[in-house]
Write a structure and sequence with these properties.
Shape: elongated
Helix content: under 10%
Radius of gyration: 25 Å
Strand order of the largest sheet: 1-2-3-4-5-6-7-8-9-10-11-12-13-14
Strand content: 5-15%
CATH topology of one domain: Leucine-rich repeat, LRR (right-handed beta-alpha superhelix)
Largest sheet: 14 strands, parallel
Number of helices: 2
CATH superfamily of one domain: Ribonuclease Inhibitor
Amino acid sequence: MKRCCEDFVKWVIDNCLEDTVSVHPDDLKMMTHLDLRRKKLTSLPESIDCLENLSVLKLSNNRLTSLPETMGNLKELKNLQCENNLLETLPQSIGNLSKLMILNLSVNRLESLPESFYALKNLTRLTMAANKLTHLSPMFSNLSKLLFLSLDTNELNELPDAFASMKSLYYLNLSYNHLKSLPRSISAIEELETLLLEGNELNDLPSLESHDMLIKLDLSDNDLSSLDFDVSALEDLKILILDNNFLTTLPEEICQLEHLTQLSVCSNSLIKLPENIGQLKNLQELDVEDNNIKKLPDSMGQLKNLKNLYIANNNGLKKPDDLDVEFCDV
């Protein structure tokens, strides 16, 4: 242990980190938080495991290409922040971090995850956006305690049918991948409040009726020609974004979403809106730009809380005279 501390102290001094890290052996042994963000680090020493009580390690915005295998010896680590680096792989020992709850690996160069990764059964927050992941193992189902999961801006073509175990997941971001379909197990996520699927290649959807706690749903920039599920079942939905698809109609059931505040369906092939759209009493923003709509429904005048209306690039569409909005783009 003494030799390990001496090596770590030398590394601290060599990297001019004395203002950030104590070089006293007793302090190192008791250290629980270490913030090494923006230190231009290209590597970490094997001796980092002398920090045996470390619970929070922040390594963001450096130039790290790898993490040492000894990271797995940091048995007390609960929070690891390593976004905005150059990581291409993760150490096999990462699975030994049994207490890890928060892990941020966004904006790196990871193409795959070691099998040991799926032993991190206490993770509640996992952020891996902007990497190069092409697949996930079915063992992903082991991460059953996840509450927050961001996998956006990767290269995923498909997902394992592994979400049925994630009963408490409330945030799921899968935007900007290459997904053509979603696994059925997504329907089993009971607590989901935010589902972001923008910028994929989806042409159909699994049943979403079970997500009655959903607040935000973003399906923009996909290949959807219809919504083949009962939208009215999403009774808490506030934000629905369907831009840049191939929709020709919207289901009348949308008009039953009494909590909806934002509806955006620009750049589709809509020729009309649901006749009862005036039932959306809490709607504040409506965007129907770049469609083929000739006339707005008479019920539009009932949208007393509507503040922003976007109707440009339709068939000469005009704002109804009885509709009072703060901003209208025609």
